[in-house]
Amino acid sequence: MSTPSNVPHPWLTVVMPSYRGEEWIGHALRSLAAEAADGIEVLLIDGGPTPAARDIAREFHDRVQLRIVAREDIRDWQGKTNFGVLLAQSPHVCLLSVDDVWLPGRAAAVRAWITTAPNAVLHLAPTVIVDRQGRKLGIWRCPLPTARELSFATVAERLLVQNFIASPTPVFRRDAWIACGGLDESLWYTADWDLWLKLSATGAVRCHPELTSGFRIHSGSLTMTGTRNTDELERQMRTVLERYLPRLTSASQDIEQAARASIAVNIALAAAAAGDSRGLWGALGSVLRLKPAATHRFLRDTRLLERVAPRLRARVRRSF
Question: How far is CA 174 from CA 90, 179, 248, in A?
Fold first, then answer.
């Protein structure tokens, strides 16, 4: 581990899990360096078989308050992330995959979020979807009200229909993460979705309108490679739904119907991306059979067009 000396105690820790991240890590750290501010600690937890990503990261030591930890024994992103949060020295933490980026103004925005609502366990916001070259493809929004505290019921009734939270955006309290057990390491695809629901059950959530992060889509990302195993993907989505649906009492039937239709659509889209489009008509049928209230929830909460259109634009540009 390498640790800089004579640095202020951090108010925010950025945890970066990495495995063979050398292609992207320079972009991520450059975006952090552009937002450099006293008290932002960056923790790189690298499990790659070579020091390539760590060597690139060391070039930023004079611009970023950076700690580098080599953990080749931890292969999955969930384990590296949980380990990084335990090492964090600040009361608030956020995540940044090596292929995602911060946008100008994020440091100031996050500081304002925390100052305004220091007791909130989770801060959410929309994100910009970018392609391999960093070009904007669209905006992924949260279907949540802003400027007020949100209860678990308000968050969960929308979030159970679809995970609309891009991982580089949320900021959370470290103590809340530890108290709820952090990421479920048995869920390689839906662990973050499960986590946002767990955190929102422990205290107030705030949603903000600022665009402060870029979520990159490309052919090598987990969201693309992992979704090829559609049977396992469906199991993990159902696991999350069945864990948290019983905690809701209001309109749970409409929520369940919308959520199960959303799972069907997500599975069909994942299969289609892998070359098997046979399930698309069946998924469409599951949407058309929804009752009006469930249809409203599905359309509001899935953000389907916001998620699919950027991927289609990326394919047209051939930059995927």
Answer: 8, 9, 26
pLDDT digits 0-9 by tens, 200-240? 999 999 999 999 999 999 776 555 444 568 899 999 999 99
- What is the H or E stretch that residue 44 is in? strand 40-46
Task: Give the CATH number of domain 1-98.
Answer: 3.90.550.10
Our separate counts of H helices and E strands in the chain read 13, 11
- Neighbour order of strands in the sheet with 101-102: 101-102, 213-216, 127-130, 136-140
As annotated, the residues of the chain forming the CATH 3.90.550.10 domain(s) are 1-98
Angle at 183 between CA 120 and CA 21, to 5 degrees: 105
Q: How many residues does the chain have?
A: 320
- Here the tokens at position 74 are 């931890």
In this prediction the pTM is: 0.92
pLDDT at residue 128 is higher than 80: yes
β-partners of residue 93 are 13, 172
Q: Token digits for 142?
A: 């949260």
Beta bridge partners of 2: 68
Which among 279, 100, 296, 266 has a CA at the least distance from the CA of 190?
266
Q: Where are the alpha helices (DSSP H) in the chain?
A: 25-34, 52-58, 77-87, 106-116, 152-159, 174-180, 191-200, 222-225, 230-244, 252-273, 280-288, 292-301, 304-317
Both tokens of 210, joined, read: 């600022």
Whether 18 contacts 80, CB under 8 Å: yes
Maximum C-alpha span of the chain: 62
Buried b (16+ CB within 10 A) or exposed e, 75-100: ebbbbbbbbbbeebebebbbbbbbbb
Residues 253, 125, 63, CA angle at the centre, nearest 5°? 145
Q: How far apart are CA 90 and CA 173, in angstroms?
A: 9
Q: What are phi and psi of 18, to 5 degrees?
A: -140, 140
